[in-house]
Design goal:
CATH architecture: 3-Layer(aba) Sandwich
Order of helices and strands: EHHEEEHEHEHEHEHE
Number of helices: 7
Structural class: alpha/beta
CATH topology: Rossmann fold
Helix content: 25-40%
CATH class: Alpha Beta
Largest sheet: 7 strands, mixed
Strand order of the largest sheet: 6-5-2-1-7-8-9
Shape: elongated
Strand content: 25-35%
Radius of gyration: 20 Å
Distance between the termini: 28 Å
Number of strands: 9
CATH superfamily: 5'-nuclease
Length: 212
């Protein structure tokens, strides 16, 4: 029996499941949905060593709107509480290890509603504070995935790594694992495909259909 580790890019997997299960999730993407669908990538001939889940807490802190110059509070207590409940529930599942990065504000961008006005009329009204939004980016998730891939491979903890992510930044870590004799499996869902480059640098492509 082959020993496997499942490494999940939480944001990528969540979006893929939402696309696949649209209209079938009255409670949204729960810890149970994440766990159940992650295990669909495991064969009967494989034994799960650990499931690593990488994600971030909702953004916090303050930012200054470049149009109005008003200070905006980026913290949402409701979203924070919901995400912490999600982490607590997922952390109770067997073999799960949580890895958390942080979300940082990157820059202010035009909302799509204003962009559409510009496309229709070059003389669109002047920008208001509601026409821009703060773009957010995850920090530390890719690094943590890469470190765990290297550790699992170099220490020979597993025979295979199952990677649930579509981030091409993972390719160098995938190459390292394969050089160390660890097989790399990439997972594709109906609702979100992975790039051809990732497929080429993996040993196996597994396709799963999401379930509730």
């Amino acid at each position: 029996m082959k020993k496997v580790a499942i490494l999940i890019d939480g944001e990528w997997f969540r979006i893929a499941l939402e696309n696949d299960l649209r209209g079938k999730l009255p409670n949204g993407i729960t810890a149970e949905i994440i766990y159940k669908n992650a295990l669909l990538s495991v064969l009967k001939s494989e034994e799960v060593f650990r499931i690593f889940y990488y994600d971030c807490e909702p953004p916090s802190g303050k930012a200054v709107n470049p149009i109005s110059r008003k200070t905006v509070d980026c913290t949402s207590p409701a979203k924070m509480n919901a995400r912490m409940r999600f982490f607590a529930e997922l952390g109770r599942k067997p073999h799960v290890a949580l890895r958390r990065g942080v979300v940082k504000g990157r820059n202010w961008v035009l909302r799509m509603s204003y962009v559409k006005k510009l496309l229709k009329d070059k003389h669109a009204p002047s920008l208001t504070e509601n026409d821009v939004m703060l773009s957010m980016v995850q920090k530390g998730v890719d690094m943590r995935i890469g470190i765990d891939v290297a550790t699992l491979s170099l220490k020979k903890h597993v025979d295979r790594i199952i990677l649930i992510s579509g981030d091409m930044d993972m390719i160098p870590a995938m190459k390292l694992a394969r050089r160390e004799g660890v097989q790399v499996v990439v997972v594709e869902l109906d609702g979100r495909k992975v790039s051809q480059e990732m497929v080429e640098d993996a040993d196996v492509l597994r396709c799963i259909t999401a379930t509730t």
